Amino acid sequence: MASEHPQHPPVSDLLSLDDALEKMLSQVATQCIATRVPLTAAAGRITAVDVTSPVQVPPFDNSAMDGYAVRLADLAAGEPLPVAGKAFAGNPFTGEWPANSCLRIMTGAPVPPGTEAVVMQEQAEVSEQGVRFTAPVKAGQNIRRAGEDVEQGGVVLRAGVRLGAAELPLLASLGVTDVAVYAPLTVAVFSTGDELQPVGTPLQPGQIYDTNRFGVRLMLEQLGCTVVDLGIIPDDPQALRKAFRQADAAADLVISSGGVSVGEADYTKTMLEELGQIGFWKLAIKPGKPFAFGRLANAWFCGLPGNPVSAALTFYQLVQPLIARLTGHTDWKLPPSLKARAATPLKKQPGRLDFQRGIAFTDEQGNLAVRTTGHQGSHIFSSFAQANCFIVLERERGSVAEGEAVTIQPFNHLLGA
Ligand code: AMP
Ligand code: MG
In which pathway does it act (predicted)? Predict the structure, then answer.
């Protein structure tokens, strides 16, 4: 007879984070539809096609310096050259340019036809006879060439890029008025648990406030998703079935939290088997071991663990890349990992990849260091508010002594300040 309580699988049977990501991402592709939106409505959206430039930048050859436009032949005699006219930014020189003369020119002014170089005014001596140049002059010097920054018709942003403060002003500078982006992903969320109450409701003995829906909703909004919030669902198969059906009909992705850990979620599992193909995974990460992923009749499904730290971590490490894939955000990546010196000892057992919450700082020697936020329990959510990075401790690693090198992963905008 099977034991009354399901057993924890041996550590070696746990699924690694990379394998879990691979398993998830290999199944999905973007289903979002492309629409054209004005630039002013494009913040946070993902480009659906390559964006090309309607113009070249700079639009014309222009001067990089305040100084003098010259033709090299006029310099051969080494005589001072009279100034035959002026070219300003926004006010080009349009007159005749006689032989053996130069033109006064300002930064950004179109270089007059025939200009072979611009000499900066610091290398010019002005006298009654004209201008004498005090340094050798090279062909092309101090001329910004048309199209040198952006070619007309050239790709300025690839498809799959999130439009933010670095991208949108670039498009504005090119005179782009609208851009093809993917429609937002609709995500339904709910929390499961008889003990959960929404904020604003007094707590009865044994009840706690629902943390996860708050965090998940916020992160989804930051990822540009449209959120359908189904609230708190009690631990009751009928109510859960109804919620899953409703969520599946309303969304492209359904995210629940709670009820996926060993020993208490058997009916959730049975019910999800009835409603779709869901894998219940035991991940070799800490926190966040239990995680469910699969397909409902219409939508994809992620079941986050109930513990708030585990829920936030699995969302960040697994659901975030899934959403990137589903929204066509092919350019998505986490900030680069860095090496830092552990400024405090870090407790760890070998067996799982550990994402401890850390505070990265520059030490007195100017080197990157990190200290722990303290207690790393999966219910200590305040650790996120103190931290600015994950300290990523390799699966087989044990405790870390002060001074050892560790890998840190700085938080991105979902968790960062
Ligand atoms: P479960 O995965 O349902 O067994 O939940 C594991 C732990 O997380 C329990 O202590 C739950 O009370 C807690 N928990 C589950 N869901 C939430 C939530 N939405 N907010 C805060 N704590 C939760
Ligand atoms: Mg529960």
Answer: Cofactor biosynthesis; molybdopterin biosynthesis
Q: Distance of CA 175 to CAs 38, 49, 168, Å?
A: 12, 18, 11
Ion ligand 2 residue ranges (Cβ < 5 Å):
193, 258-259, 306
CATH architecture of the domain 11-32+184-326 equals 3-Layer(aba) Sandwich (3.40)
* Per-residue pLDDT, 267: 74
Q: Which atom of ligand 1 is nearest to the CA of 211?
A: 20
* Ligand 1 surroundings by CB, under 6 angstroms: 191, 193, 195-196, 208, 210-213, 257-261, 264, 305-308
pLDDT tens, position by position, 96-150: 999 999 999 999 999 999 999 999 999 999 999 999 999 999 999 999 999 999 9
Ligand 2 geometric centre to CA of 222 (Å): 26
Give the CATH H-level superfamily of domain 338-415: MoeA, C-terminal, domain IV (2.40.340.10)
Tell me the C-alpha distance between 49 and 185, whole Å: 17
CB 115 within 8 A of CB 141: no
State the span(s) of the chain assigned CATH 3.40.980.10.
11-32+184-326
Segment 285-308, tens digit of pLDDT: 999 889 999 999 999 999 999 999
Q: Is the pLDDT of residue 270 over 90?
A: no
**CATH 3.90.105.10 domain extents, the chain:** 35-56+150-182
- Res 44 pLDDT > 50: yes
